[in-house]
């Protein structure tokens, strides 16, 4: 039933069925575009707001309570996983007069690209204009504000490289 409701609400949606957990909140704008995948798993109580374009690769998983806000474009690569309470925002409110409430202020937005085989730890945040390379681990509670190269582990606020995800070959090994 959730698949049917999603299909009705997103007119420009191209995806086969996937699993949607209970309490999933989907807010869809009139210009929203959703390009799908095989085997998308959205666990309980995710909150997605799609005003722009969302492209989801194959075998992508979201744990409970993740937030996704798309005003420009977000691309999520194959085999990527997002732990509980992850927050992904490709937009921010711009400054304005102090008497204008934030939700009425204009927004700035820039695409987010998440590579293949990326693991984003619990409560991590990915902000607008960021590209994350393939085979990256984003540590729990990290805030990603800049591009991340492939094959690294990042952590901290703001996120910085703290290790590698792939061992490099030892040229002296026989």
Helical fraction equals under 10%
Tell me what portion of residues adopts beta-strand conformation: 35-45%
Q: Termini distance?
A: 57 Å
Q: Please, what is the CATH homologous superfamily?
A: Hexapeptide repeat proteins
Number of domains: 1
CATH architecture: 3 Solenoid
| Structure annotation, total helices | 1
Q: Could you give the order of strands across the largest sheet?
A: 2-5-8-11-16-19-21-22
Shape: globular
SSE-based structural type: mainly beta
CATH domain fold name: UDP N-Acetylglucosamine Acyltransferase, domain 1
Radius of gyration: 17 Å
Task: Quickly name the level 1 CATH class.
Answer: Mainly Beta
Q: How many DSSP-defined strands?
A: 22
Stretches where pLDDT is under 50 for at least 5 consecutive residues are none
Largest sheet: 8 strands, mixed
| Sequence of secondary-structure elements | HEEEEEEEEEEEEEEEEEEEEEE
Can you give the mean pLDDT?
Answer: 87
Description:
The protein is mainly β. It has a single domain, classed as UDP N-Acetylglucosamine Acyltransferase, domain 1, CATH 2.160.10.10. It contains 1 helix and 22 strands. Strand 21 and strand 22 form a beta hairpin. The longest helix has 8 residues, at 2-9. The mean pLDDT is 87.
């Amino acid at each position: 039933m959730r698949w049917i409701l999603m299909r009705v609400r997103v007119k420009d949606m191209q995806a086969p069925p996937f699993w949607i957990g209970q309490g999933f909140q989907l807010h869809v704008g009139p210009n929203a575009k959703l390009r799908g995948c095989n085997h998308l798993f959205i666990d309980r109580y995710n909150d997605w707001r799609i005003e722009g374009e969302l492209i989801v690769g194959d075998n992508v998983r979201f744990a409970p309570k993740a937030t996704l806000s798309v005003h420009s474009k977000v691309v999520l690569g194959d085999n990527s996983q997002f732990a509980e309470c992850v927050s992904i925002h490709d937009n921010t409110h711009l400054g304005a007069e102090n008497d204008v409430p934030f939700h009425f202020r204009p927004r700035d937005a820039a695409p987010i690209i998440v590579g293949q085989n990326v693991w984003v730890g619990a409560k991590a945040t990915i902000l607008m204009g960021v590209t994350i390379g393939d085979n990256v681990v984003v540590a729990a509670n990290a805030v990603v504000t800049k591009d991340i190269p492939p094959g690294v582990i990042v952590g901290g606020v703001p996120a910085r490289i703290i290790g590698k995800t792939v061992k490099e070959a030892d040229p002296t090994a026989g």
